[in-house]
Amino acid sequence: MLMLSSVLATAAPAQPNSFLSVLPMIAIFAIFYFLIIRPQSKRAKEHRTMVNALTVDNEVVFAGGLVGRIKKIDGDYALIALNNNTDIKIQRASVMSVLPKGTIDNI
């Protein structure tokens, strides 16, 4: 009997540290945060700031590649002049970038 109890005592595996078993999950989350989540939220914040700063006579490029000049801003929408005869209404959020003044005239 004495021999059996000593065999059972030595055969029991040591308990792993619970922090070490969670460490890989924390590392993976940190990698996702710094490589994917944080840069995307930074770009979204910059885009939101740009859209809120739109004013009349800004020259803009919006989703789809069209270039135009803002004639009127009405809430979440803007009236864009593509040329002298064509005006379209777009959502302000679809503006991808603001061009420097005079860009449309040079194209």
TrEMBL record:
User: Transmembrane ranges?
Assistant: 20-37
> How would you describe this protein's topology in the membrane?
Single-pass membrane protein
- Domain of life, per lineage: Bacteria
User: Which biological processes are named by the entry's GO terms?
Assistant: protein transport
Keywords associated with the record: Cell membrane, Membrane, Protein transport, Translocation, Transmembrane, Transmembrane helix, Transport
SMART domains linked to this entry: YajC (SM01323)
Give an example GO cellular component term for this record.
plasma membrane
Where is this protein localized, as stated in its record? Cell membrane
* InterPro entries per UniProt: Preprotein_translocase_YajC
Q: Which family does it belong to?
A: Belongs to the YajC family.
PANTHER family with a match to the protein in the record:
SEC TRANSLOCON ACCESSORY COMPLEX SUBUNIT YAJC
Protein name in UniProt: Sec translocon accessory complex subunit YajC
Which species expresses this protein natively? Answer: Moraxella nonliquefaciens
Q: Which gene encodes it?
A: yajC
